[in-house]
Structures are given as C-alpha cells and as structure tokens.
Amino acid sequence: MQSKGGTVHQRQLGTVIRAARCAQRMTQAQLGRACGYSAAAISRVEAGLLRPAPEPLVLMARALDLPVDTLGVGRRATLAQVELYWIGVHTALGTPDEGVPYAARIAPGQLPTAERRARFGTDCARMWHQLGDQRRTFGALRFTEQVAPEEVRRPALRALTADLLYASVTVPGVRELATRTGIS
Q1: Do residues 46 and 16 both lie within one domain?
Q2: Which domain holds residue 17?
Q3: Does residue 51 share a domain with residue 119?
Q4: What rounded mean pLDDT belongs to the chain?
C-alpha cells in the first residue's frame, strides 16, 4: 500500500527506528555509521521514505539493541510482539499514555520466550514510571524479576527501583527489591 511519504510499513518501521535511536540517545549520524548509511539516509528511513536492505537492517537492530526480527528481518512477529514494541515506542517518544492500551491487550503468556516476557515487564515499568504510577511500576518490576531475575539488575531498571525507593509514595516491597538488586 503506497501513499505519500512511503508505505504504511515503511512509516511504522521508521517510527520504531527513530524511537529506539532516541531511547539509546544516538544521533542519526551515529546510527548511520553503524550500518553504513549517511545521516541523511537514516532521516529518510525514519520518515518512511526509504526501506533499507536486510543487511543494514540487521546492523541497525544490533546498534539499537533490538531483536533483529523487530525490524522485519527474519521470522514474522506475533500480534503480541508487535504490541509489545508499540509500548516501547510510545514510551521512548514521550507518549506513554498511548502505550497503555497495547499493554492491556497483551497476555504475557502469549510472548514466546522469557526474554520477551522480561521485555514486556521492562517496557511496562518504564511506561508506568513515566506516567507516575509507582504501584504499577513496582508490579512490572516484580514481574520482570519473576520471569528473568537478572534483568532487574540492569542499570536502567536499578534506576527505576531507586526512584521508587526514594519516592514520596511508599510502595510495599520496594525496599526488599532494592536489596535484591544491590541498591540498598
């Protein structure tokens, strides 16, 4: 389906790439160097005007710390996996409230691996944190800890846990999680 500004798929791909790049605090030039494209070409990809070949997409996925199939290379993603990525996209773009409906539609058991389920917990924790909902942030962190205990020891999730620990609202269980992750 072709429309002004590229196909619908190209625009969605561009949105995902831009969100992931911004989340990594990476410039278009840095991403371009990682995959052999110019900053102008990355701009066109993000605008949905250019569909990269599979090889540069694989390099982009690696540079952006995304599973390769996220960018349409490799096997097809399930609906739950696509909705999971939209949670991360909206959170990275600063519109986490738009990720809430996607999160509500996902049953974590639909996700094929523990890594994907941990990603669901991580993305939801970030989303709820941006929305200022400490209890749901904690719930998502606990879920992540249950499906992949090593994930909550990553710096970004430890920072979320520390924010909860020192927040004005006391959430039962946060101190124990902080202890298990080495924060307190």
Answers
A1: yes
A2: 2-71
A3: no
A4: 88
